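Posting this for the archive.
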Amino acid sequence: LATAAYGMSLVHPSFATSTVLSPFLALDAGRGVDVANRFTSAAGTPSPFLSPVNSPFLGLANGGRYVGLTFVPNTSLRVRLGTSLNSERLDHFAFDPASTAMPMLGLLYDPSQTESLLAGLSWDISGASGIDVNAIAANRTGVPLGIAQAANIAPRASTRAVSVAARLGLGSGWVTTASFSEGLSQLDLRGGVPSETHEQSYSFAITKHGLFGDDSLGLSLSRPAPSMAGSFSSLLGSSDLPPLVVGRGQTLAGRSETDFQLGYVTNFLDGAVALQTNAAYQVNVQGKGGANSLSLLSRAKVKF
């Protein structure tokens, strides 16, 4: 699980660990965990992408506190079960009683919190080729701080989703992945009007592992679910805030969003130092025709 560190916080540093319980079973635990990468990356290979390309709905469980089990009956089959609690009060903010700043009062009430249950199965048919099946049940309450004025953010959201991805190894470290995801979200919009959305997501990605050493270079093309905001979670401007399920707003009458993502990640000193660079281009952002976005991000991660 150590490869699944998600965010960087001076107040609450990220960590991840796996404890072997038997030759086939391990107990996983962590804080600030990239759960989506943990469930979708084969053999713990770090993902060069900022958001989960294979199973985008799994990103709802990113961050926070995670505990789960990994069952490996043989070298080609892996089964994962886990639960995640992502709370702004516990994981993203610290209350300083000596501070006199008025915004700190907002930490005393109505924090945003997401509870998730996850299950995943990975079957490595041969080498880098295989099939992944993942499922998530996530419930969020509250609106994350910093975006409370966004009218299309649902104060409550409940999502059930399943994803299927096929990986094909092309040799020399090249891997292509095609995936399909389907989700059902129950949104409690402002004013108490419930709304149910049934959505689908598609993606295609190609990744080169071992380009210059312990590194990965990836390019992806995806059609995200219309209600998913923050497809590029680290570019939201709110630290490493995971993706959110929002009210669809104009998306019903809008155009489908298309995302292009280019990423590179490399590790040094046996994974103690990681460098990542990403570029993202979004067409028809959140279903708004003609609304395009270009984002760039570089970051470094050091494990102590």
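The chain is about 5% helix and 50% strand. Helices lie at 35-40, 88-91.
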